[in-house]
Amino acid sequence: MNSQLTSRLALLATDEHLPLLGQGLRGIERETLRVTSKGELARTPHPVALGSALTHPQITTDYAETLLEFITPAESDIALTLDKLETIHRVAYSKLGDELLWSESMPCPLPPEEDIEIAWYGKSNIGMLKHVYRRGLALRYGKAMQCIAGIHYNYSLPESLWQLLQAKEGQTGSAKNFQSESYLALIRNFRRHSWLLMYLFGSSPAVSRSFLRNREHKLEELSEDTLYLPYATSLRMSDLGYQNDAQSGLTPQENSLDDYVNRLTNAVNKPYPPYEKFGIKRDGEWIQLSTNLLQIENEYYSTIRPKRVIRSGERAIQALCARGVQYVEIRCLDVSPFDPVGVNLETARFLDAFLLFCALEDSPAIDADQSLAYARNFAATVKDGRCPGLKLEREGQEITLEAWGEELLQRIQPIAAMLDTQHGGTEHTVSMDRQKAKLANPELTPSAEVMRALAQHGNSFARFGLHQSEEHARYFKAKPPTAAEHAYFEQLANDSLSEQLAIEKEDRGSFDDFVAAYKDSKLCQP
């Protein structure tokens, strides 16, 4: 254990400062496809009964029209966050009729590209901006990619904790800058060690054959309708997922907030010849927002992002520049097909310990060679993580995944114990023990569990996915929303529809002018 981690743990473990660990916030965004009772992609528009996808604070869509996204309020205890997430699911099921929520990260068997609808947000300029952005994604990545689902985990520590560390460590400069650079340090450590999360929680070792769309691949045939890799943990996070040649050159530059902002600003403004061939309009219709490497900064598909809540009319980079980093968004978690809401408390307790470790541990700058090595470790784990004796790279030396993982868990253990002391109980430590067992025995990992479940359903990804979706539907329908919950979400839905109408009525100017102003806005202002 390095001296920085030791000293920070000693400081935070005191009776005076331990309560700070309970004052951060946790939020979850869960994506899930709407499918028919036969496990086919739903062809219906976003249900009006759920409100406006443009303005509803907790129920929206992401990419495809049928890809629902549930967004929880942020809570200081992840157990409360998960309760809120379950409530959103129960409310949604009360409005979906015969449709189901798909239980997997990788999509159900998909129809032809032309039959996959892009998410629609109404006729306002901002609604059209969101829609045209997704048209561009379809053009660049294909519509099948817009049907992939994941779990996004939003994590923050209280500002008072960062202020305490800055004061005790004698760091000069503004509190905003110290906090931002501390979150960037967390992100660098996440880059070093996130392969461990893919081994422990990856749950997409197989895909429907229809997803590949005749693309080249090196997957093996599990059955007539299913492809897989024998030791894979998360094909969603492999090169089969939301990646392409353009983004492969966007190596993370997170040695400082300035590095990160400059990298994304350049990508948003840099023309990319293959996209220039498409143009911006076709037959007078917008087909993408720009022909640059990224249309907007959110197109950068990263496993983790520094974030700041944005204000009306503000762009993500502008918020970071103006007010610094407020939290991080972890984006590499697969939807767990064995949990009705896609994630469980045991996983979340480990994540909290893992992320606090990343925040407190010393985090040197990452050079280009190291960045490539971390990417190779991640890629090896998602494709071959359960392979016996799999070797990763650590500081130029080979080490087995199991040995490195055991070392990491040993270093995280004191943090889990400290979180248990603060929170009361043993949940973090129990979760640590479960993860240690997975390292010792790959058959205990979720990806191995998925492979066993596939075998029980004729090795068919479609049959397994539909079975789990039906099980989850029964779970939620057996617990319908209470009268108070129903009334609350009814009000949210009605308010969101009214807000969308108001936005559309208040619009001024053409969409062309709106996009021009959006692209002309300075991405980083003092």
What attributes does this structure have?
single chain; 526 residues; alpha+beta; Creatine Kinase, Chain A, domain 2; seven-stranded antiparallel sheet; three-stranded antiparallel sheet; 18 helices; 11% strand
Please explain how this structure is put together.
InterPro entries: Gln_synth/guanido_kin_cat_dom, Glu_cys_ligase, Glut_cys_ligase. By secondary structure, this protein is an alpha+beta fold. It has one domain (3-520): Creatine Kinase, Chain A, domain 2, CATH 3.30.590.20. The protein is 46% helix and 11% strand. It contains 18 helices and 14 strands. It has helices at 3-12, 78-93, 125-141, 159-168, 175-193, 195-201, 245-248, 257-269, 273-276, 316-323, 345-360, 368-384, 401-423, 427-440, 446-456, 461-477, 483-506, 511-520, and strands spanning 25-35, 59-61, 67-71, 100-101, 151-156, 206-208, 220-223, 226-228, 281-282, 285-286, 304-307, 327-333, 391-394, 397-400. The model has no long low-confidence stretch (mean pLDDT 95).
Question: Radius of gyration over alpha carbons?
Answer: 23 Å
Mass-distribution shape? globular
Number of strands: 14
Main sheet record: 7 strands, antiparallel
Structural class designation: alpha+beta
Our measurement of the CA-to-CA distance between the termini, rounded to an integer number of angstroms, reads: 39 Å
Query: Total domains, how many?
Result: 1
Provide the CATH architecture. Answer: 2-Layer Sandwich
Q: Percent of residues in helical segments?
A: 40-55%
- Give the CATH topology: Creatine Kinase, Chain A, domain 2
Quickly name the level 1 CATH class.
Alpha Beta
Mean pLDDT reading: 95
Work out the helix count. Answer: 18
Uncertain spans:
none
**Beta-strand residue percentage:** 5-15%
Enzyme class: ligase
Family: Belongs to the glutamate--cysteine ligase type 1 family. Type 1 subfamily.
Catalytic activity: L-cysteine + L-glutamate + ATP = gamma-L-glutamyl-L-cysteine + ADP + phosphate + H(+)
Organism: Undibacterium terreum
